[in-house]
Input
Amino acid sequence: MWNNKMKAFTLSYDDGISQDIRFVELLNRYGLKCTFNLNSGIQTGASTWVGQNDTRITRMNMAGLRELYAGHEIAVHTLTHPDLTKLDAQTVTNELTVDKKNLETFFGAKVTGMAYPYGTHNEEVRELVKKAGLSYARTVHSTNAFDLPTDLLQLPATCHHRAENLMELAKQFVELQTDTPKLFYVWGHSYEFDVDNNWDKIEELFKYISGREDIFYGTNYEVLSPLF
Ligand SMILES: [Zn+2]
Output
């Protein structure tokens, strides 16, 4: 796996919002790969709200997204971003399968994973995720560690990019010598860099973690598919 490397770095970003344009520029500049989790039922500029610090957050229209996200992975975030644990089984399946189909049609690529809206799930939801033909589903749980996931339908991250110890974890990972596969997995929303006014923080991480011979840089699918 991972071109015979023992360490991999991946990212997962949600909601298809306009700050992804600046985020993708950064990813591409540093040769990093990300998975973008999209809600095809509300992927429109009409979906807009004001977040913390009066930051305007707006989903992008579909036109141009195939070009924007080229080289990265697209994954399900459900059709309309509901809390899946509050819906009946048929509606959960509709939220999953229709989003998957829409994204596959629009992006012309097979969609194999997802991120749970709000990170919420339960056993019934996970069963429906599997039935919908999805192989992995990201939660909002952080491990602060680099172990490979044991349950791909309750996939944790190493940390959110807002973690106080983000650079400390990055340093641990870079310095790690290992004979078994280790994964550094970061997630978030790109609008948080506007809210927190700290685009420099994510660029610092990218500059530090990128371009290393012993690290494989892949999308969630590229990193996780050997475990499917
Ligand atoms: Zn979301």
Observations:
- The CA atoms of residues 80 and 151 lie 25 Å apart.
- The radius of gyration is 17 Å.
- The mean pLDDT is 98.
